[in-house]
Amino acid sequence: MSILAYHMVSPRFCWGLGRVTPALFDIQIKTALDAGYEFISLSEYIERYPQIRGCVTLTFDDGYDCIYEYALPILKKYRLTAAVFIMPAYAGMSNTWDVNWGGLLFNHLNWHQVKTLRDEGWEIGSHGYSHVDLSRLKERELEKEVTWSKQLLETKLDTDIRTISYPFGNCTEPVYRYCARAGYKAGLVMSRKPATVPDDFAMQRIGVYLTDFKHMFKAKLSSKYTTAFMGMQSILDFCSDGTVLVKQRLNLKIKS
Ligand SMILES: [Zn+2]
């Protein structure tokens, strides 16, 4: 059983590993189906957890518009859906919150595209309001990121927002308590699970990267991870978005 965490599915070059090509994505889905994995929705995963065997759930962080262009048609071909986590502050805008190495910018889904995904059966969750590290915020700042993002998504999409994917996978006990009070039913981290947060608010996912060809991808589908594997995965998770974290922390220091 695994919850897979994707970012971009795109043929367009970007620095870093947080992307798979549409061809690789198609191969990965087919690999999972051929291996007999059952694809279940995130809601079903949460409902059945931890009594899950042989299942896989797809999630996308950041809500890039390449998901609409490339992941949606591939998943439709296999009659599958996924969950996507949106930052409302960047809907329809480019990813200026990122480091943008070499001046490369990527667009986020606009509201029309998010509504189309919802209508296609995808689940929508929050990725905070503006993609900042929640673990470093004060309570009044958490209101905007945690509560407003939920309310705004619910108003725009006329659907319940029950899940949050913590930006950078970072969750602490105060963040989890705030999210639970705000009405979320579950929270998703990456490969590192904070010890003081209960399982339903620290659901572990495994990131999928450009380097995940057949054998590595098969290892990620199974839940039999070794300590060495998870250590390497944590490094990959950090490489995929750690530079953004450094940029945001530098900005905070300059402002304060
Ligand atoms: Zn993110």
Give a quick rundown of the structure.
With 256 residues, the chain is an alpha/beta fold. The chain contains eight helices and ten strands. Strands 1, 4, 5, 6, 7 and 10 form a six-stranded parallel beta sheet that branches. Strands 2-3 form a two-stranded parallel ribbon. The protein has a two-stranded parallel ribbon with strand order 8-9.
Description:
- This protein is of the alpha/beta class and 256 residues long.
- The chain has one domain: Glycoside hydrolase/deacetylase (TIM Barrel, Alpha-Beta Barrel), CATH 3.20.20.
- The protein is 41% helix and 13% strand.
- It has helices spanning 22-34, 42-48, 66-77, 111-119, 139-157, 173-181, 214-221, 227-255, and strands at 2-6, 8-9, 19-20, 38-39, 55-60, 83-86, 123-126, 163-165, 186-188, 206-207.
- Strands 1, 4, 5, 6, 7 and 10 form a 6-stranded parallel beta sheet that branches.
- The protein starts with a strand and ends with a helix.
- The model has no long low-confidence stretch (mean pLDDT 90).
